[in-house]
Amino acid sequence: xxxxIRAGAPTGARVAYTLRxxxxxxLILALAVAMLGADYALGKATxxxxxxxxxxxxxxxxxxxxxxxxxxxxxxxxxxxxxxVLVRHGVPAVLALLAGVAAGALGxxxxxxxxxxxxxxxxxxSTLAFALIVEEALVRAEPLTHGSAGMTVAxxxxxxxxxxxxLAQAAVSLVAFAIAVFGxxxxxxxxxxxxxxxxxxxxxAAAACGIAPAAVKMQAFVVGGALSGLTGALYAxxxxxxxxxxxxxxxxxxxxxxxxxxxARRLAGAAWGALVIVVIPQAIAILRDLLPGDWARAAGLxxxxxxxxxxxxxxxxPSGLAGGGARDGASGQNGA
Amino acid sequence: MHIPxxxxxxxxxxxxxxxxxxxxxxxxxxxxxxxxxxxSDLSGxxxxxxxxxxxxxxxxxxxxxxxxxxxxxxxxxxxxxxxYDPKRAVLAARKLVQRxxxxxFIANMGTPVVMATMPIVLDAxxxxxxxxxxxxxxxxxxxxxxxxxxxxxxxxxxAATRHxxxxxxxxRTCLLYQDDDYGLxxxxxxxxxxxxxxxxxxxxxxxxxxxTDLSSQIARLRAARCDxxxxxxxxxxxxxxxxxxxxIGWELDMLVTASGYSAQTHELGGAAVEGLYGVSVLPHPxxxxxxxQLAAWIERYRARFNAEPxxxxxxxxxxxxxxxxxxxxxxxxxxxxxxxxxxxxxxFSRDYFGSPNxxxxxxxxxxxxxxxxxxxxxxxxxxxxDYLQ
Lengths: 336, 389
Fold this sequence. Notes:
A: mainly alpha, B: five-stranded parallel β-sheet
């Protein structure tokens, strides 16, 4: 959670900053492997990295472009189903991955269309409606999606190599996440990133400067959708079974929560938020095993404790884990 | 930190990570404790089932432990709450496999959870026993480690619908179903029964899980002039459907699956659900009129959990009982494979709960295919047929 490096810094400083940023993650992973066992820890790492990719999308749409996105899980669903259907029809998983990204991006573009006329909460409601439409469409498109019955997805494979161990799955997800972070970082430092932040801070002023807010919002949604699609494509392989109900509103709110817990204005926030969302419930489950009989058996205990942790994080670090203790002011505006 | 200890730590990490690159090995031999894992729903949409099922299992395992365990080994049930979420379930299954070294998984709950966790369980060489899912993948294709004992919706609803239509001469059978795998399985059974009787399903209408207002669906069924409606609903929707029909003055027979066969149905529905038919795959444990053994069991359950048992508690208890009896029959040399081969030769006859026969063979890992009809009379379910073939 070190302070971001400024643009134009020397290469040595950049490398040092990158290593400094990675150090806590290496330590967390090493500790998790040592304490929980490699298979379990790497399984968690796989989901953290996969969630974090979608989290990057939320950071861009919500934290950078300032739009309310309440239906991000629908874009994950589009990626997951594109991947599952294509792999089932014999398309290599890597090519299907590209289609999954494209499906998410296309979905993002569609979801952003109401932004031409609506703003604020009303636009947020339209993204919610979009998510409901997608979920319903997946149920109705039974010949393609198997409807509510869901469909199984084979292991991810590249040229005969199958990612059917937790180490392989974690490696694929981490590589995908690294590529996504690199791409997002470039975008945030480009004129696109500056345009997103300009629209977020003052739409009228941005328009007066020659920025077309509707187009800029659509760009953010396309990028956010592509990242969600990538998450969905990987998710389909790691979980091995997808059904429309998995991508409901609860998942959308989880992704939104992920970004706010981690820090919606920083890319690093996606990773920290994913860590909290994925790991805390499991950590609570392990600690629960230490409680005496009746306490350990209380239904919904994990949920209550998880809620308490979320409230604590929001109260103590209102700008998110990656955003520092006080509200984010001028620092980290480019979100790197 | 001392340098050699750092080296040892790093070496351990490398070995652990390398091991994770290989497929998980089977936990074949158990020590002085048998760990049984379950990925349940204690906080999600089917927590109504998850809590009593867990309590029923706990009760049976506690009894076995109090009696000295299974060949001297204690049974420890580790419960993970996935809340019907496959993402949480995957992590929970990995925890149970690797951290808790679960010997077997029993009563995993919900189709998305079961489908997401089953490959992890089977790849790790652990037993996958009696999941709460209508999916045929829980017993087909035949796999040495997966067993199911819940009658498939399709099979028993086919028999129940056929029996009702044949006995009562309904002309216009319709279906109200939950828009998911559960509803689709029931629909297949109903359609098969009707086609066997040379009839058609006159009307079908669906709802999304969690719907509270079924007025439009009931109006549609009434417009189709149905004289018999099969309900692929759970408790709340069953009550809502019956109450709506009665409210608009529509008197007709309805038949609900075992998912609606619950004491909560008549407790919530009251007079509105009087006369409702249901399919039972295991009877509800009413204290009133219970045989001696059942009455004693109900008392023990109340004393243990300070709650009334229901049909889900009986299911949990029964599943744990099947496990304990099979482990005992396997003998002191308990391994995953020995347990599975023993279960393939087991037949569990009907007990004081009124359960069906459960029978497993090397060629068939589905223990039961049958349900029996019941009807709500005077505010409680009464069994009106034996198990339908």
